[in-house]
DNA sequence: CTACACCATCGATCCGCCTGCATATCAGCA
DNA sequence: TGCTGATATGCAGGCGGATCGATGGTGTAG
């Protein structure tokens, strides 16, 4: 499995929404589904949450195995999935590998899911 | 697999975000992951898109099999997944079953994914 | 009443993924 | 160099899901 780059890169992730005007293309649907699949796992959601709420907004593997109740290889596996999806970034400092959220990654997904707001007639709530 | 009701119901879907302040609970993570899992499929994303862009914002199964290139049982299966996740609603009229988007369902998911903008100090947009 | 069209369900198959154990890799240290 | 600890990778078992063909149920038309 070679590294395919962050699936959330602007060039790979289309500017379309599944709720947009035009029917979504097959290839676009597969790309978006790929990123959502990385999110659609309880362990990975908790990992994102744990990392985000960590002291410096970063955490190493050894800090994450205990709260999750999963083995270290399994945690590394999930972190890899999230990193390849473009949701996490990894920094190796000494023996430890620190993971942190990619700032706007999840917000980008949220935007893709948000309807294209035809706010012409829509009053602010 | 018995029907568990709309996973997006206010009572079942917590008001937490994976990017919220507190680490997400295990049960909450599983519920959110369940809804995301329903979204994380190319066929289902295209179904949502097709239905949304249909003339009246609704479509029956017979209109959806051809564009997707999937068999009718498979399309029914996906529609069932989306409906049980609370993303679609079904209305039977005669022999046809019309599906339409649940208005704010996907927006709710998007909100859950959106960082909780610590609005204590942040002025309301 | 019979035939037909639309849809849901069932059963079976195939494939991908979550998980853990074992092992490899790498950095720091004596 | 050799040892220890933190991560990553390989491998395999087991479960869930995506798909299709066949079947059943139900309106509608004739």
From TrEMBL, chains A, B:
Source species, domain of life: Bacteria
Protein name according to UniProt: Putative transcriptional regulator, ArsR family protein
Molecular function in Gene Ontology: DNA binding; DNA-binding transcription factor activity
Gene3D superfamilies hit by this protein: Winged helix-like DNA-binding domain superfamily/Winged helix DNA-binding domain (1.10.10.10)
Domain HTH arsR-type span(s) in chain numbering: 24-121
PANTHER family documented for this protein: ARSENICAL RESISTANCE OPERON REPRESSOR (PTHR33154:SF18), TRANSCRIPTIONAL REGULATOR, ARSR FAMILY (PTHR33154)
CDD domains (UniProt xref): HTH_ARSR (cd00090)
Coiled-coil blocks: none
Organism: Phytohabitans houttuyneae
UniProt keyword DNA-binding, yes or no: yes
Keyword terms: DNA-binding, Transcription, Transcription regulation
Signal sequence residues: none
């Amino acid at each position: 499995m070679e590294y395919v780059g962050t699936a959330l890169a602007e060039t790979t992730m289309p500017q379309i929404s599944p709720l947009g005007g035009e029917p979504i293309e097959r290839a676009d649907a597969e790309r978006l589904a790929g990123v959502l699949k990385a999110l659609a796992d309880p362990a990975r959601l908790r990992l994102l949450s744990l990392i985000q709420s960590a002291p410096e907004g970063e955490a190493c593997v050894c800090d994450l195995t205990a709260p999750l109740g999963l083995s270290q290889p399994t945690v590394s596996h999930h972190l890899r999935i999230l990193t390849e999806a473009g949701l996490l970034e990894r920094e190796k400092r000494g023996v430890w590998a620190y993971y942190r959220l990619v700032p706007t990654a999840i917000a980008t997904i949220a935007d893709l899911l948000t309807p294209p707001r035809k706010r012409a007639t829509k009053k602010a709530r």
